[in-house]
């Protein structure tokens, strides 16, 4: 029988989409003024923030967090089947997560699929893009931050856009991740104990860092083990890491 957590994971994507709709109405990170004020510093025609590192099971792939790209262009891009031919998608790596269209080698633009992609984007008036790819601890590509404009971005502009964009993406994702953790019943204290233990801390170490007793720490572990339907503390830590219940840096 699947555990409570895994049963809830079956609806992880649906939860994220519903949570996102509520956040766009009320959460300050989704205030369009945040982007508009930044756009005054470094001009760009369009922006997009997509993907949530929800559970390391691709439930958050392609969830559009915030964008002013033409909706018809976004829909056509995904329906075209050309996403996997996009040089910005195929050429980024965890070691080189940032790529501008102006830096794509000329020979990579010569394939029939890439030419069809270029025509599709031009049809929807989408200019050349800059993509900052996001990778989880398993080096799995889960999300993107992107900007587009007719003139190429300068190196110093790219550096600032990447620094700011990754941090705004985290701010957009955080309430979804927090809501997901609450949905499956893992408390903040339980998550913190799992996170510290995954880094080698003992119960006594965790107790000192959190300012609680070792008995309370062990109680948090017992509760988390039960909720995760794990066989042991080690098993619970491994599950928490796989399900992205702890908050390792992206």
Task: Give the key terms.
2 domains; 5-stranded antiparallel β-sheet; 250 residues; elongated; Arc Repressor Mutant, subunit A; Beta-Lactamase; alpha+beta; disordered C terminus; single chain
SSE order: HHHEEHHEHEEHHHHH
Task: Summarize the amount of helix as a percent range.
Answer: 40-55%
What is the CA-atom radius of gyration, in angstroms? 21 Å
Strand order in the largest sheet: 2-1-5-4-3
Principal-axis shape equals elongated
Could you describe the 3D structure shown?
- The chain is of the alpha+beta class.
- It has two domains: 4-183, Beta-Lactamase; 188-243, Arc Repressor Mutant, subunit A (Orthogonal Bundle).
- The chain is built from eleven helices and five strands, in the order H-H-H-E-E-H-H-E-H-E-E-H-H-H-H-H.
- It has a five-stranded antiparallel β-sheet with strand order 2-1-5-4-3.
- Helix 2 packs across helix 7, helix 8 (188-198) packs across helix 11 and helix 9 (203-210) crosses helix 10 (214-227).
- The chain is elongated.
